[in-house]
């Protein structure tokens, strides 16, 4: 499938033209966990339903997913102020484009921790992909491979890391939470190393779970047959049967609440892989993370799902970039919905952006091919934004584009 998608890459970039008018069309809402993963009609779906952008995919996903699953993916903490601000913040930034810039063929390639990727748009770690697609995280990993970009696997995946990484391209990283039982955490790290992970992404903004009222109202839990697969062999694979959010109860029972820089020190000593710290909101925290061994930091507020009224990531990003200097690489996530958002993030100093919900919407609509479509939409939009801003390479994108 990944090879077929790569072969069709040029068609997608030129307007997502399908190679066959006979492709079946997926139109009926379904429970995603029960479908077969056969997406022969995904190319026609994009053409027939005119899914031209990320928002189109989000609307289509809403019509295909059960309410509790959609709300889990889309929802944020409390009043969802930060959730909305993440997207609105990028919208508020204006681009002061250059003209007569003799722009040639654009080159969007870059590296993350020295590993080459085709564009500065990578797949963020998100949980429970089998709520969206029967093939789950394997479909997402294949889509990232076809797009030539980084895939980060969540530790809270519905598919074991060994099965996912066997189908993933390079680079492939593993996201980690620190459990109360360090032996569980260490076992995850060693399994990730053995499975071929090339970095560990430590999430530090979730010592507890922010209150997500949608999940509480929906009594969110995993459907029968789905587990936290990476933790199942360690006896931590099931969400508790409780009133309210089963995930919130799981986090309370298992995640280490008193996280400190000593935990980062321990992790850096415990793995041969580079460590990325995800979830920073302050320049001083980012600098300390680098001083304690992080090779990169991700400016993130967990997609607006943790502390509501935390600032939008675009507001934090320049302060983090200034604070860390050349000590480590800086990435950002949160609210990226257009290729122009990616360009703005690079102008503010990010090396790459992570996209989570956008990829999930594609996965909901058409599995592997849907996730690939979304990545290619963002690629095309970034290419267009670079052309119209007068930039041929990513190195030409800087803060001058954000001010007159």
Individual helix count:
16
Kindly name the structural category.
Answer: alpha/beta
Query: In CATH, what is the homologous superfamily?
Result: Aldolase class I
Shape: globular
What share of residues is helical? 40-55%
Uncertain stretches of 5 or more adjacent residues: 5-43
Query: How many domains, as an integer?
Result: 1
- Which fold does the CATH topology refer to? TIM Barrel
- SSE run: HHHHHHEEEHEHEHEHHHEHEHEHEH
Summarize the biggest pleated sheet: 8 strands, parallel
The strand count comes to 10
Strand order of the largest sheet: 3-10-9-8-7-6-5-4
The rounded Rg comes to: 20 Å
Mean pLDDT: 90
The CATH class is Alpha Beta
The fraction of residues assigned to DSSP E strands is 5-15%
State the CATH architecture. Answer: Alpha-Beta Barrel
Q: In whole angstroms, how far apart are the ends? A: 46 Å
């Amino acid at each position: 499938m990944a090879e077929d998608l790569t072969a069709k890459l040029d068609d997608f970039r030129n307007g997502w033209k399908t190679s066959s008018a006979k492709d079946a069309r997926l139109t009926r809402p379904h429970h995603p966990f029960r479908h077969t993963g056969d997406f022969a009609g995904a190319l026609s779906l994009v053409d027939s339903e005119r899914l031209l952008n990320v928002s189109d995919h989000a609307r289509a996903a809403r019509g295909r997913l059960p309410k509790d699953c959609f709300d889990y993916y889309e929802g944020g903490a409390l009043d969802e102020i930060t959730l909305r601000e993440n997207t609105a913040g990028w919208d508020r930034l204006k681009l002061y484009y250059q003209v007569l810039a003799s722009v040639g063929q654009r080159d969007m390639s870059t590296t993350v921790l020295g590993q080459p990727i085709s564009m500065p748009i990578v797949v963020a770690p998100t949980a429970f992909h089998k709520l969206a697609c029967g093939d789950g995280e394997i479909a997402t990993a294949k889509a990232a491979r076809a797009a030539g970009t980084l895939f980060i696997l969540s530790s809270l995946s519905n598919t074991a890391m060994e099965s996912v990484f066997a189908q993933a391209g390079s680079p492939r990283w593993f996201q980690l939470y620190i459990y109360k039982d360090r032996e569980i955490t260490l076992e995850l790290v060693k399994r990730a190393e053995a499975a071929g992970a090339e970095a560990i992404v430590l999430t530090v903004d979730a010592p507890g779970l922010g209150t997500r009222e949608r999940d509480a109202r929906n009594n969110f839990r995993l459907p029968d047959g789905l587990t936290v697969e990476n933790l199942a062999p360690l006896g931590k694979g099931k969400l508790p049967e409780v009133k309210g959010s089963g995930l919130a109860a799981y986090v309370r029972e298992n995640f280490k609440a008193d996280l400190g820089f000593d935990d980062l020190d321990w992790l850096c000593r415990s793995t041969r892989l580079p460590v990325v710290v995800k979830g920073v909101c302050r320049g001083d925290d980012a600098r300390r993370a680098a001083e304690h061994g992080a090779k990169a930091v991700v400016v993130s507020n967990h997609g607006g799902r943790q502390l509501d009224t935390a600032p939008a990531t675009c507001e934090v990003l320049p302060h983090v970039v200034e604070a860390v200097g050349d000590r480590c690489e800086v990435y950002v996530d949160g609210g990226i919905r257009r290729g122009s958002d990616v360009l703005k993030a690079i102008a503010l100093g990010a090396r790459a952006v992570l996209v989570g919900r956008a990829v999930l919407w594609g996965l909901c609509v058409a599995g592997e091919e849907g996730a690939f479509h979304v990545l290619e939409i963002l690629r095309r939009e970034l290419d267009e934004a670079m052309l119209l801003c007068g930039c041929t390479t990513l190195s030409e994108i800087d803060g001058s584009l954000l001010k007159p």
